């Protein structure tokens, strides 16, 4: 079989004949040996929908299935001048403070000669980018209610997000080496095929990670349509070789441990065959499906889900193993006692902290104690960083069940200055810090923060 080597990248590109012309195979050299990554064609289009809307639906389905439906938003209508209404983009992908306007364009007739197809692709790409720019402009002028993949409405203020425009092409055979160009938009932009899109979500299984990748790739030189997996592995190889940045581990207190993982994993999420990466997805689903009462809103839920989805993809399997071990361990205590285990992580920027724990049972006392623990750790870290106003801490507590589903999930999120009364703060510290010092049924799992892709700048 013929192949093409790239002397600047540690892999061999091979066309995958068994999957048709739109598939490829990458043979990647990694520190753990040779890794073969087959990139299949894009998911098939829904049979009951016309080609154009079907391509949009398939794009949405891939992001909702491999990412989270809570981060994929349907197009909505917005009142314009006069009696008209203006669409706000085909799909929006939102997580944290980043958003993508995804314009899906499909070739619904038989392709013509390559030269003509390239002209058509350039034309629809320019139109798509212009539409994306208009969508962002409208959302910044006036917030709009958008509907996510669970049919829940959330108000989207365009000024609250950093935006990227995504031109997504559904085409039966993109001419080789087609590089799309467009006029500057005043924001990042990137062109992908639907196969590229499916690959990124299948590889990362995280909407946050896909958005971070899109922004990163948009700052690199353009690649031919369909070659996004090749660029991905070039960047992943750079991540694997990049040394960790120095970080003050004392920000999380004594015993903090620095750990570093590549921002872009070379193996697909869950590629170890254990499925422990699904532990995080189950926790995300628990949060997504829990009924929220007043004064909680869908924006609150979106924020909590976004905070948790920031956990690096390369760390998720190890965290899944740990959480399952915690759940097996905490019930093993005398009646009436409670055992706690925690892991804390402070992200590289020092403003986001994630606490995941397990406890023997869940009741009102446990809920109050866990809330106090989250507030205490938030206060301690923000006191050390001096960045209180911009800092947040998410706490997730798992408690085992004896029938039905394996655990219950509870969350606490705090932000900024909590203004904890000095008496309460002393009580929290006396209880929790004494427990950690004396080892009173508390596992002080390592705390630290992973540098996010030093090679990304």
From TrEMBL:
Q: Which domain of life is it from?
A: Bacteria
- What is the name of the protein in this document? Uncharacterized protein
